[in-house]
Amino acid sequence: MKLFELTIHELHEKLVSKEISAKELAESVFSRIDDVEERVKSYITVTRDEAFAKADEIDKKIASGERIGPLAGIPTAIKDVMNTEGIRTTCGSKILDNYIPVYTSTAVKNLLEEGIVMTGKTNMDEFAMGSSTENSGFFVTRNPWDLERVPGGSSGGSASVVAADEAIFSLGSDTGGSIRQPAALCGIVGMKPTYGLVSRFGLIAFASSLDQIGPFTKDVTDCAIVLNHLIGHDINDSTSVKIDKPDYTKALVNDLNGITIGVPKELMAEGIDPKIKAVIENALKLLEDNGAVVAETSLPNIEHSLSAYYIIAPAEASSNLARFDGVRYGYRVPDAEDLIDMYMRTRAEGFGDEVKRRIMLGTYALSAGYYDAYYGQAQKVRTLIMDDFNRAFADYDVLVSPTTPTTAFKIGEKVDDPLAMYLSDICTIPVNLAGLPGISVPCGTVDGLPVGLQVIGKTLGEEMMLRVAYSFEQSFGWSEKPKL
Amino acid sequence: MAISEKDVKHVAWLARLALSDTEVERFAKQLDVILEHAGKIAELDTKDVQPTAHAIPLKNVLREDKVGRCLAPEVALANAPHQEDQAFVVPRIV
Fold first, then answer.
1. Is residue A216 part of a domain?
2. Burial of A348 by CB count in 10 Å (0-12 exposed, 13-18 middle, 19+ buried)?
3. What is the pLDDT of residues A128-160, one digit of tens each?
4. What tens digit of pLDDT does each residue of A85-134 get?
């Protein structure tokens, strides 16, 4: 096995025992990047010099006998939606093409303090709006399993980077499925924590009541390790929750005796590819074999999730993206006649089509005469969906479903049909509306392409969710890799 | 039709987005399909349902009124497309 193929926990042991150095590890990952990046195109920015400087620092610590944490020296990629001081941060948009942040987001800062070696910033759908990474203002990222297919989105670069071994793990953000969906399509583990568990300070906002940062990893153990260091109350994010930090690795128990698992029938209904359903049914059997009690349940209002989401998320986005006006940072048209002309043409030239669509959708849903019918009603539907989850969680410890209705689709297949693209997030969106944690773990393939199993936890129920995901992973024994 | 080309022009103006005529035509068609789908929630009876703005209960968070760390002027202006005398410069307004 090459070093770039290993997990965080495997590499940590090798670093601590001085079998390898952080520099050797960085060399391995960057040689992999040199090998495959031209084909996969995961990164918008590669930070090679900074990475080797950081690796040196970690090696000095190890040499001096200092104890290092589990993330020290681990090559890590960051979605280009999180501010990184002194390192270009584009959010996948031409409007931020030249933006160099003057501060670092809390989530990234937490990991940097733990000693991660940042490899670069990954490609994404512009402003995290999309399900295929085709909406990037720069280029299309490819799925390492099939270069003619999308990696999913919006965190497509952060998923492909781990699937292609161009980083050991990465961070993404998830507003309606943007971590779990690409993780499923790329055959890796991706997790969205409970809303508020991870600080959003420095995360460029899309829909503030839904956005959450989370990890992409090669296995569930790595996911728990990263989560341990990602969470915590932040004075700069008033929505971040105050809890005693658990050690999530303690939740990794390979035993499901007495655990109850609900399968919402609406997420196994029409719209889900029958071949995916068959893979999920096998996964459910495996969960039963591990001691879990698996039964069908219902979330009757969940069919309205997509509608509610495509009003609430664009409404919040239309407000959040008002800040991109050419005044304080980012692109500005060079020849504006007056202030209004500057705003109108800066935004017209700086934003891509999907961002414009969502800004207009949101502006419409919030405008006089339509507010009650669209935004007000969508907020009430959100309550109904949360009530559905609460009722289900009275009977079950976790819920499981497919992560996506289909496997990775072809590049270009859905770009001209926004609604068809939106439907690829049908299993993940309800989880964001309810603020719940969700994880996608690989559970098989259909026609050579990976399928993800989504495990949904209760509010702050990450430990039970990780236990179920871990137990499944251990007995399933997924070891398939894309051939690049 | 949930949304007309006239509506799209109005919304684009509210959102400060300059659109060409062909864009207005294309976006009107696409937004109409999306709004038709999203508009289905109007069928639901929500008479006695409270709206949810946030999935977790939130309350105002206040801090002590004292000066904390803040950005130096040159740092705050570092990304400005146009700056002069510690200020952001914009085209003439009045």
1. yes
2. middle
3. 999 999 999 999 999 999 999 999 999 999 999
4. 999 999 999 999 999 999 999 999 999 999 999 999 999 999 999 999 99
The predicted-structure confidence for A319-362, as pLDDT tens digits, reads as follows: 999 999 999 999 999 999 999 999 999 999 999 999 999 999 99
* Residues of chain B contacting A209 with CB distance shorter than 8 Å: 53-55
d(CA A105, CA B54): 22
* Residue A400 forms part of a structural domain: no
Give the start-end residues of each E strand in A256-381.
Answer: 260-264, 293-297
The answer to whether position A75 is within a domain reads yes
Report the C-alpha gap between A309 and A429 in whole angstroms: 7
**What CATH number did the domain enclosing A82 receive?**
3.90.1300.10
Count of domains observed in chain A: 1
Alpha carbon distance A205, A81 (integer Å): 8
Q: Which of A211, A380, A389, A423 to mutate to test the interface with B (most CBs of B within 10 A)?
A: A380
Kindly report the nearest CA distance between residue A318 and chain B, in angstroms: 8
Confirm if A115 and A69 have CB atoms less than 8 A apart. yes
B5-43: what fold? Answer: Histone, subunit A (1.10.20)
Look at residue A411 and tell me if it is in a domain. Answer: no
Give the three-state DSSP class for A211: coil
DSSP B49: P
Domain containing A75 equals 3-253
ipTM field: 0.95
Burial of A244 by CB count in 10 Å (0-12 exposed, 13-18 middle, 19+ buried)?
A: exposed
d(CA A457, CA A382): 18
Q: Which residue of A has its CA nearest to B36?
A: A307
Q: Do B79 and A326 touch (CB under 8 A)?
A: no
CA separation, residue B70 to residues A31, A470, B81 (Å): 40, 43, 21
A95: nearest CA partner in chain B: B81
Cβ contacts of A344 on chain B, cutoff 8 Å: 16-18
Is B69 part of the contact surface with chain A (CB cutoff 8 Å)?
no
User: Partners of A259 in the beta sheet?
Assistant: none
User: What is d(CA A121, CA A44) in angstroms, rounded to the nearest whole number?
Assistant: 6
Contact B90 A195 (CB under 8 A): no
Q: Tell if the CB–CB gap between A377 and B44 is shorter than 8 Å.
A: yes
Give this prediction's pTM: 0.97
